Amino acid sequence: MRRNRSGLVSDLTFLGFLVLVYICIVFIAGSPDHYIQNIIILNVAFLLAVVTYFTTVTAGLVLNLAFIFGYGFFILYQTLSRGETIGINTYFWLLMTPILTVVVWIFTWSSRELQLENEILQKKTANLATVDENTDLRNSISFQKDASLFTGISTRYQIPLTLLVVKVKYWSEIRRLIPEEQLADAIYDVSQLSQSSIRTNDALYLLDKEEATWGLLLFTDQDGAKIVIERIKLKLQELNDNEFSRKYKVNLGLKIGAVQYHADTIENPFDFIVQAKKQLEYDV
Fold it and tell me: Which residues are in coiled coils (predicted)?
């Protein structure tokens, strides 16, 4: 409801600004005797509106007040020195200039409200998303949900469950060597490497894209996990000899840690990840 209101206000104020500009153009065209003066004042009015757009309504209104006093003294001078009367031209600009400023400020305020709401929605979407947009892999949020289910199955049916954490060695240095547009491709390629090394009933997760870290939930014990680790490292070596070195000009290395689930030592999915990451220290 709030988003719709902000959008409606933004649309109406923009339309109102266009109407006011049209009125100014018609007024200037209907007063050929004061053409130069009206054009100058119109430029001043636009300048005040632009200042309001990039600052605050307070600054805009203060500048409008200064303009009104300056313009008032100018009209008073002409009246006293030349005997001219105060016409509709004077009243028009004294009203139109602050109106333009206020309309622009309302448009600015509503636009910023929409931008703020858009940023909030984007953050909420990112927090609720369970699939990485580049690799189509389930992320850490999905892992938190799935791990509870997997550990429940493991406990109920006495099926061993092991978490592998896979991380690219020296990723912070490697990402400086790989062009920015190829980083997503590198993560995708390593993801595919890991995906092809597990069974269909196992699950692969991209736990941390910035640190190039994956998690693999395997229905197997430590010995079975070692087989998967060897399989991954063997395929990585093959790819380094062929695709990776040619495509990214570097050889990628992996650190892999594994921990088997035990209900008495692992309290929650986050603890599962932490304990598996500790095992990375032993893979040098």
Answer: none
Domain ranges of the chain: 2-128, 138-282
For residue 262, what are its two tokens? 């035990």
Whether 182 contacts 244, CB under 8 Å: no
Structure tokens at 234: 């063997």
Six-digit token string for 162? 């092991």
Given this model, what pLDDT does residue 161 score? 94
Distance CA 20, CA 36 (A): 19
Q: For residue range 22-56, what is the model confidence (pLDDT) as tens digits? A: 999 998 888 887 888 889 888 998 998 888 888 88
Amino acid at site 275: Q
DSSP class per residue in 15-82: HHHHHHHHHHHHHHHT-GGGHHHHHHHHHHHHHHHHHHHHS-HHHHHHHHHHHHHHHHHHHHHHHHHH
pLDDT in tens, 62-77: 888 888 888 888 878 7
260-280, pLDDT tens digit by residue?
999 888 988 889 999 988 888
CATH number of 138-282: 3.30.70.270
Written as one letter, the residue type at 70 is G
The average pLDDT across 235-249 equals 77
Which pLDDT belongs to residue 260?
A: 93
For residue 85, the 8-state DSSP code is: P
Tokens of 126: 């990112």
pLDDT above 70 for 204: yes
Strand-by-strand arrangement of the 254-260 sheet: 138-139, 203-208, 213-218, 162-168, 254-260
- 257: alpha, beta or left, given left = phi > 0 and alpha = psi -120 to 50? beta
